[in-house]
Protein backbone atom coordinates (compact mmCIF):
# COMPACT_ATOMS: atom_id res chain seq x y z
CA UNK A 1 0.00 0.00 0.00
CA UNK A 2 2.79 2.43 0.98
CA UNK A 3 4.65 1.71 -2.28
CA UNK A 4 1.50 2.49 -4.27
CA UNK A 5 1.06 5.81 -2.48
CA UNK A 6 4.70 6.77 -3.11
CA UNK A 7 4.40 5.79 -6.80
CA UNK A 8 1.26 7.90 -7.16
CA UNK A 9 2.98 10.86 -5.46
CA UNK A 10 5.91 10.66 -7.89
CA UNK A 11 3.59 10.51 -10.88
CA UNK A 12 1.72 13.59 -9.66
CA UNK A 13 4.99 15.43 -9.06
CA UNK A 14 6.23 14.66 -12.57
CA UNK A 15 2.93 15.88 -14.00
CA UNK A 16 3.32 19.30 -12.37
CA UNK A 17 4.39 22.19 -14.56
CA UNK A 18 8.14 22.79 -14.38
CA UNK A 19 7.88 26.12 -12.47
CA UNK A 20 6.08 24.34 -9.62
CA UNK A 21 8.84 21.76 -9.06
CA UNK A 22 11.71 22.49 -6.72
CA UNK A 23 14.48 24.12 -8.74
CA UNK A 24 18.09 24.85 -7.84
CA UNK A 25 18.89 28.55 -7.50
CA UNK A 26 19.40 30.22 -10.85
CA UNK A 27 23.03 31.16 -11.55
CA UNK A 28 23.82 34.81 -11.05
CA UNK A 29 24.29 37.09 -14.00
CA UNK A 30 27.52 39.03 -14.63
CA UNK A 31 25.69 42.18 -13.53
CA UNK A 32 24.72 40.54 -10.22
CA UNK A 33 28.30 39.45 -9.53
CA UNK A 34 29.41 42.98 -10.28
CA UNK A 35 26.78 44.40 -7.94
CA UNK A 36 27.89 42.06 -5.14
CA UNK A 37 31.55 42.89 -5.68
CA UNK A 38 30.83 46.63 -5.63
CA UNK A 39 28.83 46.21 -2.41
CA UNK A 40 31.68 44.23 -0.84
CA UNK A 41 34.39 46.68 -1.90
CA UNK A 42 32.45 49.79 -0.84
CA UNK A 43 31.44 48.31 2.51
CA UNK A 44 35.04 47.49 3.38
CA UNK A 45 36.22 50.89 2.08
CA UNK A 46 33.71 52.79 4.20
CA UNK A 47 33.75 50.72 7.40
CA UNK A 48 37.01 48.82 7.89
CA UNK A 49 38.77 50.60 10.73
CA UNK A 50 42.39 49.47 10.52
CA UNK A 51 43.59 50.68 7.12
CA UNK A 52 46.15 52.87 8.89
CA UNK A 53 47.91 49.73 10.17
CA UNK A 54 47.99 48.08 6.76
CA UNK A 55 50.04 48.35 3.59
CA UNK A 56 46.93 47.51 1.56
CA UNK A 57 46.05 49.71 -1.40
CA UNK A 58 42.29 49.16 -1.26
CA UNK A 59 41.66 51.21 -4.40
CA UNK A 60 43.95 48.85 -6.28
CA UNK A 61 42.03 45.88 -4.86
CA UNK A 62 39.04 47.11 -6.82
CA UNK A 63 41.10 47.27 -10.00
CA UNK A 64 42.92 43.95 -9.61
CA UNK A 65 39.99 41.81 -8.52
CA UNK A 66 37.35 43.69 -10.45
CA UNK A 67 39.27 42.78 -13.61
CA UNK A 68 38.68 39.09 -12.78
CA UNK A 69 34.88 39.40 -12.63
CA UNK A 70 34.22 38.73 -16.35
CA UNK A 71 35.68 35.24 -15.85
CA UNK A 72 33.41 34.44 -12.89
CA UNK A 73 30.57 32.11 -13.88
CA UNK A 74 29.92 30.16 -10.65
CA UNK A 75 29.45 30.69 -6.96
CA UNK A 76 32.68 28.86 -6.11
CA UNK A 77 34.70 31.11 -8.42
CA UNK A 78 33.15 34.18 -6.80
CA UNK A 79 33.85 32.87 -3.29
CA UNK A 80 37.49 32.37 -4.22
CA UNK A 81 37.73 35.87 -5.71
CA UNK A 82 36.34 37.46 -2.52
CA UNK A 83 38.54 35.27 -0.32
CA UNK A 84 41.58 36.56 -2.18
CA UNK A 85 40.38 40.15 -2.09
CA UNK A 86 39.68 40.04 1.65
CA UNK A 87 43.07 38.40 2.26
CA UNK A 88 44.66 41.64 1.02
CA UNK A 89 43.86 43.04 4.49
CA UNK A 90 45.93 40.26 6.16
CA UNK A 91 43.54 40.59 9.09
CA UNK A 92 42.60 37.40 10.95
CA UNK A 93 39.40 39.07 12.20
CA UNK A 94 38.03 39.56 8.67
CA UNK A 95 36.49 36.67 6.76
CA UNK A 96 33.67 35.21 4.71
CA UNK A 97 30.80 33.22 6.22
CA UNK A 98 31.36 30.46 3.64
CA UNK A 99 34.31 28.57 2.25
CA UNK A 100 35.39 26.04 -0.37
CA UNK A 101 36.85 22.57 0.27
CA UNK A 102 40.32 23.89 -0.54
CA UNK A 103 39.97 27.17 1.37
CA UNK A 104 42.58 28.09 3.94
CA UNK A 105 41.71 27.25 7.52
CA UNK A 106 40.78 30.26 9.65
CA UNK A 107 43.27 31.76 12.08
CA UNK A 108 43.41 31.13 14.96
CA UNK A 109 40.45 28.72 15.31
CA UNK A 110 41.54 26.49 12.43
CA UNK A 111 45.15 25.95 13.40
CA UNK A 112 46.96 23.94 16.05
CA UNK A 113 50.33 25.72 16.04
CA UNK A 114 51.63 29.26 15.76
CA UNK A 115 54.89 30.42 14.18
CA UNK A 116 56.88 33.62 13.92
CA UNK A 117 59.96 34.75 12.06
CA UNK A 118 62.96 35.01 14.36
CA UNK A 119 66.33 36.00 12.89
CA UNK A 120 65.04 35.08 9.46
CA UNK A 121 63.81 31.63 10.44
CA UNK A 122 60.22 30.44 10.84
CA UNK A 123 60.05 29.26 14.45
CA UNK A 124 57.17 27.51 16.23
CA UNK A 125 56.27 29.66 19.24
CA UNK A 126 53.11 27.91 20.48
CA UNK A 127 51.36 24.56 20.07
CA UNK A 128 47.65 24.09 20.82
CA UNK A 129 47.07 21.66 23.66
CA UNK A 130 45.23 18.46 22.78
CA UNK A 131 45.40 18.75 18.98
CA UNK A 132 47.26 17.02 16.18
CA UNK A 133 50.39 19.16 16.17
CA UNK A 134 51.03 18.44 19.84
CA UNK A 135 50.16 14.76 19.41
CA UNK A 136 52.80 14.21 16.71
CA UNK A 137 55.54 16.00 18.63
CA UNK A 138 55.59 19.56 17.32
CA UNK A 139 57.05 21.78 20.03
CA UNK A 140 57.88 25.47 20.54
CA UNK A 141 61.42 26.29 19.43
CA UNK A 142 61.38 23.99 16.40
CA UNK A 143 62.13 25.58 13.04
CA UNK A 144 59.46 25.14 10.36
CA UNK A 145 61.35 24.32 7.17
CA UNK A 146 58.59 23.33 4.73
CA UNK A 147 54.86 22.58 4.45
CA UNK A 148 53.82 19.70 2.19
CA UNK A 149 57.32 19.65 0.77
CA UNK A 150 57.29 23.33 -0.21
CA UNK A 151 60.03 25.45 1.43
CA UNK A 152 58.60 28.15 3.68
CA UNK A 153 59.63 31.19 1.64
CA UNK A 154 58.15 29.61 -1.48
CA UNK A 155 54.97 28.60 0.38
CA UNK A 156 54.47 32.22 1.47
CA UNK A 157 54.53 33.81 -1.96
CA UNK A 158 50.95 33.02 -3.09
CA UNK A 159 49.65 34.06 0.35
CA UNK A 160 51.05 37.60 0.28
CA UNK A 161 48.72 40.29 -1.05
CA UNK A 162 49.02 41.53 -4.62
CA UNK A 163 48.15 45.12 -3.70
CA UNK A 164 50.48 45.75 -0.77
CA UNK A 165 52.59 48.89 -1.03
CA UNK A 166 55.29 46.98 0.82
CA UNK A 167 55.34 43.55 2.42
CA UNK A 168 55.61 44.23 6.13
CA UNK A 169 56.36 41.85 9.00
CA UNK A 170 52.68 41.54 9.90
CA UNK A 171 51.76 40.37 6.38
CA UNK A 172 54.56 37.82 6.45
CA UNK A 173 53.46 36.46 9.81
CA UNK A 174 49.86 36.04 8.67
CA UNK A 175 51.03 34.28 5.50
CA UNK A 176 53.36 32.05 7.50
CA UNK A 177 50.56 30.90 9.78
CA UNK A 178 48.18 30.39 6.88
CA UNK A 179 50.76 28.10 5.31
CA UNK A 180 51.17 26.29 8.64
CA UNK A 181 47.40 25.89 9.10
CA UNK A 182 46.90 24.47 5.61
CA UNK A 183 43.64 23.95 3.73
CA UNK A 184 40.49 22.07 4.70
CA UNK A 185 40.97 19.31 2.16
CA UNK A 186 44.68 18.46 2.39
CA UNK A 187 46.51 16.65 5.18
CA UNK A 188 49.65 18.52 6.23
CA UNK A 189 53.20 17.32 6.12
CA UNK A 190 55.36 19.60 8.25
CA UNK A 191 59.12 19.51 7.85
CA UNK A 192 60.78 20.81 11.00
CA UNK A 193 64.32 21.11 12.27
CA UNK A 194 65.17 20.44 15.91
CA UNK A 195 68.57 19.74 17.42
CA UNK A 196 70.16 20.04 13.99
CA UNK A 197 68.02 17.21 12.57
CA UNK A 198 65.05 17.33 10.19
CA UNK A 199 61.81 15.53 10.98
CA UNK A 200 58.56 14.97 9.08
CA UNK A 201 55.40 15.42 11.13
CA UNK A 202 51.83 14.57 10.04
CA UNK A 203 49.40 16.38 12.38
CA UNK A 204 46.28 15.51 10.33
CA UNK A 205 46.81 11.76 10.39
CA UNK A 206 44.99 9.49 10.99
CA UNK A 207 42.26 12.15 11.04
CA UNK A 208 42.04 15.87 10.41
CA UNK A 209 41.09 16.81 13.97
CA UNK A 210 40.79 20.51 13.12
CA UNK A 211 37.89 19.75 10.77
CA UNK A 212 35.81 18.04 13.46
CA UNK A 213 36.42 19.78 16.75
CA UNK A 214 34.11 18.48 19.47
CA UNK A 215 34.11 19.42 23.14
CA UNK A 216 32.61 17.25 25.89
CA UNK A 217 30.86 20.26 27.46
CA UNK A 218 30.70 24.06 27.41
CA UNK A 219 33.24 24.17 30.21
CA UNK A 220 35.27 22.05 32.58
CA UNK A 221 35.37 22.78 36.31
CA UNK A 222 37.04 21.21 39.30
CA UNK A 223 38.67 22.02 42.62
CA UNK A 224 42.46 21.73 42.92
CA UNK A 225 43.29 21.78 46.59
CA UNK A 226 41.60 24.92 47.89
CA UNK A 227 41.56 26.61 44.45
CA UNK A 228 38.72 26.51 41.93
CA UNK A 229 39.40 25.92 38.22
CA UNK A 230 37.09 26.70 35.27
CA UNK A 231 38.18 26.12 31.68
CA UNK A 232 35.97 27.51 28.90
CA UNK A 233 35.69 25.21 25.86
CA UNK A 234 35.36 27.73 23.01
CA UNK A 235 31.79 28.56 24.00
CA UNK A 236 31.88 32.32 24.61
CA UNK A 237 29.33 32.74 21.80
CA UNK A 238 26.85 30.30 23.34
CA UNK A 239 24.36 31.96 25.71
CA UNK A 240 23.90 28.63 27.51
CA UNK A 241 27.40 29.13 28.90
CA UNK A 242 26.01 31.72 31.34
CA UNK A 243 23.98 29.13 33.27
CA UNK A 244 26.81 26.59 33.09
CA UNK A 245 29.32 29.12 34.41
CA UNK A 246 26.96 30.25 37.19
CA UNK A 247 26.46 26.64 38.27
CA UNK A 248 30.19 25.88 38.26
CA UNK A 249 31.08 29.07 40.13
CA UNK A 250 28.42 28.40 42.77
CA UNK A 251 29.88 24.93 43.38
CA UNK A 252 33.33 26.53 43.77
CA UNK A 253 32.07 29.35 45.98
CA UNK A 254 34.00 28.27 49.07
CA UNK A 255 37.41 28.11 47.33
CA UNK A 256 40.24 30.46 48.27
CA UNK A 257 40.90 31.53 44.67
CA UNK A 258 39.84 30.88 41.07
CA UNK A 259 41.68 30.04 37.87
CA UNK A 260 39.70 31.07 34.78
CA UNK A 261 41.29 29.29 31.80
CA UNK A 262 40.60 31.05 28.47
CA UNK A 263 43.34 29.33 26.48
CA UNK A 264 40.83 27.41 24.32
CA UNK A 265 38.51 30.22 23.17
CA UNK A 266 39.63 30.81 19.55
CA UNK A 267 36.13 31.28 18.15
CA UNK A 268 35.38 34.54 19.94
CA UNK A 269 31.92 35.14 21.37
CA UNK A 270 29.43 37.84 22.31
CA UNK A 271 29.31 40.57 24.91
CA UNK A 272 26.22 39.17 26.66
CA UNK A 273 28.15 36.09 27.71
CA UNK A 274 31.30 38.08 28.45
CA UNK A 275 29.53 40.60 30.69
CA UNK A 276 27.66 37.79 32.45
CA UNK A 277 30.90 36.00 33.30
CA UNK A 278 32.67 39.15 34.44
CA UNK A 279 29.59 40.28 36.37
CA UNK A 280 29.86 37.26 38.68
CA UNK A 281 33.34 38.46 39.70
CA UNK A 282 32.37 42.06 40.57
CA UNK A 283 30.67 43.83 43.45
CA UNK A 284 30.16 47.19 41.71
CA UNK A 285 29.56 48.46 38.18
CA UNK A 286 32.74 49.27 36.28
CA UNK A 287 33.87 50.07 32.72
CA UNK A 288 35.75 47.21 31.08
CA UNK A 289 36.64 48.46 27.58
CA UNK A 290 36.64 51.52 25.35
CA UNK A 291 35.09 51.57 21.86
CA UNK A 292 35.88 53.88 18.97
CA UNK A 293 34.09 54.04 15.61
CA UNK A 294 36.37 55.65 12.99
CA UNK A 295 33.82 55.51 10.15
CA UNK A 296 31.74 58.23 11.77
CA UNK A 297 34.76 60.46 12.20
CA UNK A 298 35.80 59.90 8.56
CA UNK A 299 32.33 60.83 7.33
CA UNK A 300 31.45 63.72 9.65
CA UNK A 301 34.72 64.78 11.26
CA UNK A 302 33.31 64.05 14.71
CA UNK A 303 35.10 61.49 16.87
CA UNK A 304 32.86 58.89 18.50
CA UNK A 305 34.03 56.79 21.45
CA UNK A 306 32.44 55.32 24.55
CA UNK A 307 33.04 53.10 27.55
CA UNK A 308 31.17 49.81 27.99
CA UNK A 309 30.18 48.92 31.53
CA UNK A 310 29.81 45.63 33.38
CA UNK A 311 27.17 45.33 36.09
CA UNK A 312 27.62 42.99 39.07
CA UNK A 313 25.39 39.91 39.21
CA UNK A 314 24.00 38.02 42.20
CA UNK A 315 26.32 35.89 44.35
CA UNK A 316 29.58 37.56 43.32
CA UNK A 317 32.80 35.59 43.73
CA UNK A 318 35.15 37.88 45.66
CA UNK A 319 38.30 35.79 46.14
CA UNK A 320 41.46 36.34 44.01
CA UNK A 321 41.23 35.38 40.32
CA UNK A 322 43.91 34.40 37.80
CA UNK A 323 43.14 34.28 34.07
CA UNK A 324 45.19 31.99 31.81
CA UNK A 325 45.59 33.10 28.17
CA UNK A 326 47.52 32.24 25.02
CA UNK A 327 47.42 32.43 21.20
CA UNK A 328 44.02 30.67 21.14
CA UNK A 329 42.47 33.30 23.40
CA UNK A 330 40.82 35.47 20.78
CA UNK A 331 38.31 38.25 20.27
CA UNK A 332 35.82 38.08 23.16
CA UNK A 333 38.28 36.03 25.18
CA UNK A 334 40.72 38.90 24.74
CA UNK A 335 37.99 41.33 25.77
CA UNK A 336 37.28 39.46 29.02
CA UNK A 337 41.00 39.27 29.78
CA UNK A 338 41.69 42.95 29.20
CA UNK A 339 38.47 43.88 30.99
CA UNK A 340 39.25 41.94 34.15
CA UNK A 341 42.78 43.32 34.13
CA UNK A 342 41.47 46.89 33.65
CA UNK A 343 39.08 46.48 36.55
CA UNK A 344 41.93 45.09 38.68
CA UNK A 345 39.85 42.00 39.24
CA UNK A 346 42.30 39.41 37.93
CA UNK A 347 45.97 38.68 37.42
CA UNK A 348 46.76 37.57 33.87
CA UNK A 349 49.24 34.78 33.16
CA UNK A 350 50.23 33.67 29.69
CA UNK A 351 51.73 34.66 26.36
CA UNK A 352 50.47 36.96 23.65
CA UNK A 353 46.85 36.34 22.77
CA UNK A 354 45.44 36.09 19.23
CA UNK A 355 45.70 39.89 18.88
CA UNK A 356 42.56 40.13 16.77
CA UNK A 357 41.66 43.62 15.65
CA UNK A 358 38.64 45.32 17.16
CA UNK A 359 34.97 44.37 17.04
CA UNK A 360 33.48 42.90 13.87
CA UNK A 361 30.26 43.64 12.03
CA UNK A 362 28.57 41.23 9.63
CA UNK A 363 27.24 42.11 6.18
CA UNK A 364 25.39 40.07 3.55
CA UNK A 365 25.85 40.25 -0.22
CA UNK A 366 22.59 41.26 -1.95
CA UNK A 367 22.62 38.53 -4.63
CA UNK A 368 25.00 35.76 -3.54
CA UNK A 369 23.46 35.96 -0.06
CA UNK A 370 26.50 34.82 1.89
CA UNK A 371 28.08 37.11 4.41
CA UNK A 372 31.40 38.62 5.37
CA UNK A 373 32.78 40.12 8.58
CA UNK A 374 35.18 43.00 9.09
CA UNK A 375 36.36 44.96 12.13
CA UNK A 376 34.43 48.23 12.28
CA UNK A 377 35.15 49.35 15.84
CA UNK A 378 38.51 49.78 17.50
CA UNK A 379 38.69 48.36 21.02
CA UNK A 380 40.91 49.58 23.85
CA UNK A 381 41.64 48.88 27.45
CA UNK A 382 39.96 51.53 29.60
CA UNK A 383 43.25 53.46 29.84
CA UNK A 384 43.55 53.63 26.03
CA UNK A 385 45.87 50.69 25.26
CA UNK A 386 44.71 49.01 22.01
CA UNK A 387 43.34 45.59 22.95
CA UNK A 388 45.45 43.85 20.32
CA UNK A 389 48.64 45.24 21.93
CA UNK A 390 48.00 43.78 25.37
CA UNK A 391 50.62 41.31 26.62
CA UNK A 392 50.37 39.59 30.03
CA UNK A 393 52.86 40.79 32.61
CA UNK A 394 53.43 37.25 33.91
CA UNK A 395 54.67 34.59 31.52
CA UNK A 396 54.73 30.90 32.53
CA UNK A 397 58.09 29.17 32.90
CA UNK A 398 58.29 26.97 29.80
CA UNK A 399 61.05 24.88 31.39
CA UNK A 400 58.54 23.40 33.84
CA UNK A 401 57.12 20.09 32.55
CA UNK A 402 53.38 19.81 32.16
CA UNK A 403 51.02 22.78 32.30
CA UNK A 404 53.38 25.61 33.29
CA UNK A 405 50.62 28.23 33.16
CA UNK A 406 48.35 26.39 35.54
CA UNK A 407 51.28 25.62 37.86
CA UNK A 408 52.17 29.31 38.02
CA UNK A 409 48.52 30.28 38.65
CA UNK A 410 48.19 27.81 41.52
CA UNK A 411 51.44 29.02 43.03
CA UNK A 412 50.25 32.62 42.86
CA UNK A 413 46.83 31.90 44.35
CA UNK A 414 48.19 29.75 47.14
CA UNK A 415 50.34 32.67 48.34
CA UNK A 416 47.75 35.39 47.68
CA UNK A 417 46.04 37.19 50.52
CA UNK A 418 42.28 36.54 50.67
UniProtKB/TrEMBL annotation:
Coiled-coil portions: none
A GO MF term: serine-type peptidase activity
Domain Tail specific protease: 197-401
Gene Ontology process terms (BP): proteolysis
Sorted UniProt keywords: Hydrolase, Protease, Signal
Keyword Plastid included in the entry's annotation: no
Leader peptide range in chain numbering: 1-22
Pfam families: Peptidase_S41, Tricorn_C1
Name under which the protein is recorded: Carboxyl-terminal processing protease
SUPFAM superfamilies: ClpP/crotonase, PDZ domain-like
Amino acid sequence: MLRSVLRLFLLVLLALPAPLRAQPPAPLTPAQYQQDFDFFWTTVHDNYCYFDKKQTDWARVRTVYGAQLPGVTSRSQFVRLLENALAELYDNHAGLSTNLPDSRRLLPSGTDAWARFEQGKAVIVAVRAGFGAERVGLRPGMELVAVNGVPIEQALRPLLGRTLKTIDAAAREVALNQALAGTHDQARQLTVRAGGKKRMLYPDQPTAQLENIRYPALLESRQIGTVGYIRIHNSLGNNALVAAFDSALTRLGSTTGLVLDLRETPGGGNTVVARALMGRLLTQEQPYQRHEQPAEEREFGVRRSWLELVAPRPQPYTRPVVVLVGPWTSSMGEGITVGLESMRRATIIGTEMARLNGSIESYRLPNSRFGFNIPTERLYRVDGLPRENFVPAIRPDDTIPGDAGLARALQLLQTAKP
